[in-house]
What does this fold into?
Amino acid sequence: MMETRGFATTVIGLVRYQMEQVQPPRGVWTPFQLGRTLGEPENAPFQRRVLMQALNLLERRDGPVILEDFADDPPGWSDCPGWRPPIVAAPADPVPASPAAWTDRFAAELASIVPFWELAKTRYGRSTIGLSGQPLEHWPGFVGAILRGELPAVAPHETAALSLRFLCDDIKALYSEAAQSVGEAPATRQIEDWFWRKTVAGNLLIELRRVALTSDNNALKTVGARFFVPTPYLPA
It folds into this structure.
Protein backbone atom coordinates (compact mmCIF):
# COMPACT_ATOMS: atom_id res chain seq x y z
CA MET A 1 0.00 0.00 0.00
CA MET A 2 2.77 2.46 0.88
CA GLU A 3 4.61 1.69 -2.35
CA THR A 4 1.53 2.47 -4.43
CA ARG A 5 1.39 5.86 -2.73
CA GLY A 6 4.98 6.69 -3.61
CA PHE A 7 6.75 5.65 -0.39
CA ALA A 8 9.73 3.36 -1.02
CA THR A 9 10.12 0.53 1.54
CA THR A 10 12.83 -1.94 2.48
CA VAL A 11 12.98 -4.80 4.98
CA ILE A 12 15.55 -6.90 6.81
CA GLY A 13 14.62 -10.54 7.36
CA LEU A 14 16.04 -13.63 9.01
CA VAL A 15 14.12 -16.33 7.11
CA ARG A 16 14.93 -16.29 3.41
CA TYR A 17 12.14 -18.67 2.39
CA GLN A 18 9.60 -16.39 4.01
CA MET A 19 11.02 -13.35 2.23
CA GLU A 20 10.88 -15.20 -1.08
CA GLN A 21 7.22 -16.06 -0.49
CA VAL A 22 6.18 -12.59 0.69
CA GLN A 23 8.27 -10.82 -1.98
CA PRO A 24 8.71 -7.38 -0.42
CA PRO A 25 9.75 -4.71 -2.94
CA ARG A 26 13.24 -4.61 -1.41
CA GLY A 27 14.83 -6.75 1.27
CA VAL A 28 18.11 -7.92 2.79
CA TRP A 29 18.37 -11.41 4.21
CA THR A 30 20.63 -11.71 7.26
CA PRO A 31 21.63 -15.31 8.15
CA PHE A 32 21.87 -14.56 11.85
CA GLN A 33 20.49 -16.03 15.06
CA LEU A 34 16.73 -15.58 15.50
CA GLY A 35 16.03 -12.39 17.41
CA ARG A 36 19.23 -10.72 16.20
CA THR A 37 18.22 -9.32 12.84
CA LEU A 38 21.03 -6.75 12.82
CA GLY A 39 23.65 -8.99 14.38
CA GLU A 40 24.78 -9.34 17.93
CA PRO A 41 24.42 -6.67 20.62
CA GLU A 42 27.23 -4.26 21.54
CA ASN A 43 28.50 -4.10 17.94
CA ALA A 44 27.15 -0.84 16.52
CA PRO A 45 29.54 -0.68 13.50
CA PHE A 46 28.41 -4.11 12.28
CA GLN A 47 24.74 -3.26 12.85
CA ARG A 48 25.20 -0.03 10.89
CA ARG A 49 26.56 -2.03 7.93
CA VAL A 50 23.41 -4.13 7.90
CA LEU A 51 21.17 -1.07 8.09
CA MET A 52 23.07 0.73 5.32
CA GLN A 53 22.78 -2.24 2.97
CA ALA A 54 19.03 -2.27 3.50
CA LEU A 55 18.70 1.53 3.12
CA ASN A 56 20.84 1.56 -0.02
CA LEU A 57 18.20 -0.62 -1.69
CA LEU A 58 15.91 2.41 -1.64
CA GLU A 59 18.01 3.87 -4.46
CA ARG A 60 17.54 0.84 -6.68
CA ARG A 61 15.11 0.97 -9.61
CA ASP A 62 15.55 -2.54 -11.03
CA GLY A 63 12.62 -4.13 -9.12
CA PRO A 64 9.78 -4.85 -8.66
CA VAL A 65 11.37 -7.32 -6.18
CA ILE A 66 14.98 -6.98 -5.01
CA LEU A 67 16.35 -9.49 -2.52
CA GLU A 68 19.97 -9.35 -1.39
CA ASP A 69 21.95 -11.54 0.99
CA PHE A 70 24.14 -10.01 3.66
CA ALA A 71 27.46 -11.63 2.94
CA ASP A 72 29.21 -11.74 6.31
CA ASP A 73 28.60 -13.72 9.46
CA PRO A 74 28.49 -11.60 12.62
CA PRO A 75 31.89 -11.52 14.37
CA GLY A 76 30.38 -13.16 17.44
CA TRP A 77 29.94 -16.40 15.51
CA SER A 78 33.69 -16.96 15.68
CA ASP A 79 34.80 -18.70 18.85
CA CYS A 80 36.55 -16.53 21.41
CA PRO A 81 39.97 -18.17 21.91
CA GLY A 82 40.59 -19.25 25.45
CA TRP A 83 37.10 -18.46 26.74
CA ARG A 84 36.13 -20.30 29.89
CA PRO A 85 32.62 -20.45 31.38
CA PRO A 86 32.06 -18.53 34.62
CA ILE A 87 31.51 -21.74 36.58
CA VAL A 88 32.77 -25.27 36.14
CA ALA A 89 29.36 -26.87 36.18
CA ALA A 90 28.53 -30.46 37.00
CA PRO A 91 26.03 -31.79 34.45
CA ALA A 92 23.13 -33.83 35.69
CA ASP A 93 24.83 -37.14 34.94
CA PRO A 94 23.70 -39.50 36.21
CA VAL A 95 20.24 -38.04 35.87
CA PRO A 96 18.78 -37.14 39.28
CA ALA A 97 16.38 -39.82 40.41
CA SER A 98 13.63 -37.59 41.78
CA PRO A 99 12.10 -34.10 41.48
CA ALA A 100 13.65 -33.28 44.87
CA ALA A 101 17.10 -34.24 43.60
CA TRP A 102 16.64 -32.08 40.49
CA THR A 103 15.51 -29.19 42.67
CA ASP A 104 18.55 -29.47 44.95
CA ARG A 105 21.04 -29.75 42.07
CA PHE A 106 19.53 -26.79 40.25
CA ALA A 107 19.33 -24.64 43.38
CA ALA A 108 23.01 -25.26 44.14
CA GLU A 109 24.11 -24.42 40.61
CA LEU A 110 21.87 -21.36 40.46
CA ALA A 111 23.46 -20.04 43.66
CA SER A 112 26.89 -20.33 42.04
CA ILE A 113 25.93 -18.62 38.76
CA VAL A 114 23.91 -15.69 40.14
CA PRO A 115 26.99 -13.68 41.28
CA PHE A 116 28.28 -13.73 37.70
CA TRP A 117 24.88 -12.65 36.43
CA GLU A 118 25.04 -9.74 38.89
CA LEU A 119 28.43 -8.81 37.43
CA ALA A 120 26.94 -8.89 33.94
CA LYS A 121 24.10 -6.56 34.99
CA THR A 122 26.67 -4.10 36.31
CA ARG A 123 28.82 -4.44 33.20
CA TYR A 124 26.04 -3.86 30.69
CA GLY A 125 23.59 -1.86 32.79
CA ARG A 126 20.63 -4.09 32.02
CA SER A 127 19.19 -7.59 32.04
CA THR A 128 16.51 -9.38 30.07
CA ILE A 129 15.45 -11.48 33.06
CA GLY A 130 11.88 -11.06 34.24
CA LEU A 131 9.55 -12.64 31.69
CA SER A 132 8.45 -15.31 34.15
CA GLY A 133 7.45 -12.90 36.91
CA GLN A 134 9.17 -15.19 39.43
CA PRO A 135 12.00 -14.16 41.77
CA LEU A 136 15.16 -16.22 41.41
CA GLU A 137 14.75 -17.96 44.74
CA HIS A 138 11.42 -19.43 43.57
CA TRP A 139 12.78 -21.00 40.38
CA PRO A 140 13.93 -24.36 41.82
CA GLY A 141 10.69 -24.89 43.71
CA PHE A 142 8.58 -24.12 40.67
CA VAL A 143 10.39 -26.54 38.36
CA GLY A 144 10.26 -29.16 41.13
CA ALA A 145 6.47 -28.83 41.22
CA ILE A 146 6.27 -29.30 37.44
CA LEU A 147 8.48 -32.40 37.67
CA ARG A 148 6.10 -33.81 40.31
CA GLY A 149 3.20 -33.45 37.87
CA GLU A 150 1.69 -30.33 39.41
CA LEU A 151 0.44 -27.41 37.31
CA PRO A 152 1.15 -24.18 39.23
CA ALA A 153 0.53 -20.87 37.49
CA VAL A 154 2.40 -17.71 38.44
CA ALA A 155 1.11 -14.22 37.66
CA PRO A 156 1.10 -12.50 35.24
CA HIS A 157 0.66 -15.81 33.39
CA GLU A 158 -2.66 -17.59 33.66
CA THR A 159 -1.50 -21.15 33.02
CA ALA A 160 1.26 -23.45 34.15
CA ALA A 161 2.31 -23.88 30.52
CA LEU A 162 3.00 -20.18 30.05
CA SER A 163 4.55 -19.84 33.50
CA LEU A 164 7.00 -22.63 32.68
CA ARG A 165 7.67 -21.44 29.15
CA PHE A 166 8.78 -18.00 30.31
CA LEU A 167 10.72 -19.38 33.26
CA CYS A 168 12.70 -21.50 30.81
CA ASP A 169 13.41 -18.32 28.84
CA ASP A 170 14.58 -16.61 32.02
CA ILE A 171 16.87 -19.51 32.93
CA LYS A 172 18.51 -19.51 29.51
CA ALA A 173 18.90 -15.73 29.57
CA LEU A 174 20.43 -15.70 33.05
CA TYR A 175 23.10 -18.23 32.10
CA SER A 176 23.80 -16.48 28.80
CA GLU A 177 24.24 -13.12 30.51
CA ALA A 178 26.42 -14.65 33.23
CA ALA A 179 28.64 -16.18 30.54
CA GLN A 180 29.41 -12.67 29.30
CA SER A 181 30.13 -11.17 32.71
CA VAL A 182 33.91 -10.89 32.41
CA GLY A 183 36.47 -10.73 29.64
CA GLU A 184 35.82 -10.83 25.89
CA ALA A 185 32.34 -12.01 24.96
CA PRO A 186 32.20 -15.64 23.81
CA ALA A 187 30.49 -16.72 20.62
CA THR A 188 26.84 -17.67 20.82
CA ARG A 189 27.79 -21.24 19.93
CA GLN A 190 30.22 -21.39 22.85
CA ILE A 191 27.57 -20.21 25.29
CA GLU A 192 24.98 -22.66 23.99
CA ASP A 193 27.33 -25.65 23.99
CA TRP A 194 28.32 -24.85 27.57
CA PHE A 195 24.73 -24.38 28.72
CA TRP A 196 23.17 -27.41 27.05
CA ARG A 197 26.02 -29.87 27.46
CA LYS A 198 27.76 -28.88 30.69
CA THR A 199 25.26 -27.41 33.15
CA VAL A 200 22.58 -28.82 35.39
CA ALA A 201 20.20 -26.14 34.09
CA GLY A 202 20.58 -27.30 30.49
CA ASN A 203 19.94 -30.91 31.51
CA LEU A 204 16.99 -29.73 33.59
CA LEU A 205 15.31 -28.02 30.63
CA ILE A 206 15.71 -31.20 28.60
CA GLU A 207 14.06 -33.13 31.45
CA LEU A 208 11.27 -30.55 31.68
CA ARG A 209 10.64 -30.98 27.97
CA ARG A 210 10.36 -34.75 28.46
CA VAL A 211 7.91 -34.30 31.31
CA ALA A 212 5.88 -31.77 29.32
CA LEU A 213 5.59 -34.08 26.32
CA THR A 214 4.23 -36.89 28.49
CA SER A 215 1.78 -34.62 30.34
CA ASP A 216 -1.98 -34.88 29.93
CA ASN A 217 -2.05 -31.09 29.66
CA ASN A 218 -2.10 -30.21 25.95
CA ALA A 219 -0.86 -26.66 26.49
CA LEU A 220 2.15 -27.96 28.39
CA LYS A 221 2.84 -30.46 25.59
CA THR A 222 2.73 -27.67 23.02
CA VAL A 223 5.13 -25.30 24.75
CA GLY A 224 7.41 -28.16 25.72
CA ALA A 225 7.74 -29.31 22.13
CA ARG A 226 8.32 -25.83 20.72
CA PHE A 227 10.06 -23.59 23.22
CA PHE A 228 12.18 -25.37 25.82
CA VAL A 229 15.09 -26.93 23.91
CA PRO A 230 16.51 -25.92 20.50
CA THR A 231 16.65 -28.67 17.89
CA PRO A 232 20.47 -29.14 17.86
CA TYR A 233 20.39 -30.06 21.56
CA LEU A 234 17.46 -32.46 21.59
CA PRO A 235 18.27 -35.93 22.94
CA ALA A 236 19.21 -38.44 20.27
Observations:
- The helical segments are 16-22, 44-56, 99-124, 139-147, 160-179, 188-198, 200-213, 218-227.
- The radius of gyration is 21 Å.
- The first strand starts at residue 11 and ends at 13.
